[in-house]
Write a structure and sequence with these properties.
Order of helices and strands: EHEHEHEHE
Oligomer: single chain
CATH architecture: 3-Layer(aba) Sandwich
Largest sheet: 5 strands, parallel
Number of strands: 5
Structural class: alpha/beta
CATH class: Alpha Beta
Distance between the termini: 29 Å
Strand order of the largest sheet: 2-1-3-4-5
Number of domains: 1
Number of helices: 4
């Protein structure tokens, strides 16, 4: 399964569901990088150094960084979604569609199902 790094704005409940699906997720808190106002470009560099795709709900800024970055371990941008298990499943399915996450920008949107 995928090696992921969750940005500090990313819901911990989604991280737990991703772990249950077999993904290796490191949180910014576990990496001792939380609550430090680390610039987004440095967050992406750290994730790449750890060979982990970045999970974030900061869509706009990381779309821009994806275009600027020469290479990275992947960026998964998500919409805010309170269906944590559903969001984790959509992320999981999106990951399975890509043979590698390197240099990929993957967008995972909130489900429209009611």
């Amino acid at each position: 399964m995928a090696r992921l790094y969750s940005n500090e704005n990313f819901p911990l409940d989604v991280v737990r569901f991703l772990r249950a699906l077999g993904h290796d997720v490191l949180t910014s808190y576990e990496a001792k990088k939380a609550n430090q106002s680390i610039p987004d470009d440095e967050v992406l560099i750290f994730a790449a150094e750890q060979n982990r795709a970045l999970l974030t709900i900061n869509r706009r800024d990381f779309k821009i960084l994806h275009k600027k970055a020469e290479k990275h371990a992947g960026i998964i941008i998500c919409t805010q979604d309170l269906d944590f298990s559903g969001q984790a499943e959509r992320i999981h399915q999106a990951i399975l569609k890509h043979p590698t996450l390197n240099n990929q920008l993957i967008s995972v949107n909130k489900s429209n199902r009611k």
